[in-house]
Amino acid sequence: MIRPFKTIYLPFLFLAIWSCADLYNKSNEIIAITASDLTVRGGLTVQLACEASDQDGDILSYIWESGSGSLVQNGDSATWTAPADTGVYFITCTIADDYGASAVGSIAIKVTRPSLVPVSGLDWTLTDDGLINGTNSSNENNTGITDYWDGTVENADFGWNVTIQEETDSSITQSLQFKVEDSANCGGGNGNTQNGTATANIQVNGSSPLTLELDFSGIGEAQSAGYDRIIFYLDGNVIGDGQAPGGGLGCTADSVLVNNAGPQILDPGPHTLIIEFTTGDASFHVDAYYEIKAKLIAP
Question: Based on the domain organization, do 49 and 178 belong to the same domain?
Fold first, then answer.
């Protein structure tokens, strides 16, 4: 009578052990998949991130997949290079623990036609300080960070302002403005020296050089020359500058003195354009600003 009992209960015992192991491994989930851009030109890159959780706190593995374009994976993040063909593409992230639990999520990226100007750049990093209305990245309209300026002096915010890029068959153009708050001795409330820096990392693709044209103008203090100063650097070299006109006129403003940069040839490869502005001191600043137009031209 003993053998039948062994034959009946051993399979049951095995199933019970397997069920308990499966029961104790809790699920995981994808909380969000985010992208640096939801619309991108063909051939350019998008940064992706997958936020996930596991109820047991297990270590998760991440697998990124896309039917088109190319992916460089780095755990919970990835870089996707868009294909040349236009359309909407889905990038998928699959997470899994070591005990069999998994989850899948995806994000849609719209791909538009590749730029006719072979360049990645004119995406500005903007900083400023000395503004009493808050730094540029935290002012009411987030100008130059997430929103865009319409290009008119009247609608500019203090600090950096940028316009949306305009593109033709042979060029990309964008305008920036740094607007100065009025100083405390000229009826304003700002008793600080005001500064700003705009940086663009420009990658010229292909085998042909591009031409960079910079044009700028502005209004600066008419008390002392040498203030409200702006300097342009390309790959570490000064290519243009400007300063207040001076004139001993006190709390008034006039056109700045401009040393415009000539056309700059950008060979294939990386380049860095830096624009630095400073009022130089805290006094005699009223209605002051600089406006810069940057244009990249294909051959």
Answer: no
Residue 3 has pLDDT above 60, yes or no: no
pLDDT for 248 equals 95
> In which domain, by residue range, is 239 found?
119-297
Query: In one letter, which amino acid is 287?
Result: D
Do both 64 and 136 map to the same domain? no
Distance of alpha carbon 33 from alpha carbon 150, whole angstroms: 32
Split into its structural domains, the chain has a count of 2
Q: How far apart are CA 150 and CA 155, in angstroms?
A: 7
Domain at 57, CATH number: 2.60.40.10
* pLDDT tens, position by position, 101-111: 889 999 999 99
Q: What is the Cα 61 distance to its own chain's centre? A: 28
Token pair listed for 157:
């915010």
- This prediction has a pTM of 0.65
Query: Does the residue 236 lie in any domain?
Result: yes
Last residue of a domain, one of 112, 139, 155: 112
Nearest to 293 by CA among 165, 204, 168: 165
Largest CA distance in the chain: 116
Q: b/e per residue, 189-219, with b = 16+ CB within 10 A?
A: ebebbbbbbbebebebbeeeebebbbebebb
What would the pLDDT profile of 131-179 be if each residue is shown by its tens digit? 987 666 555 555 555 568 888 888 888 899 988 888 887 888 999 999 9
Strands 39-41 and 102-112, by their bridges, are parallel
Token pair 């499966």 is at which residue? 22
What is the percent of the chain with per-residue pLDDT over 70, rounded to a whole number?
86
Residues 170 and 154 reside in one and the same domain: yes
- Tell me, yes or no, whether 132 and 210 share the same domain: yes
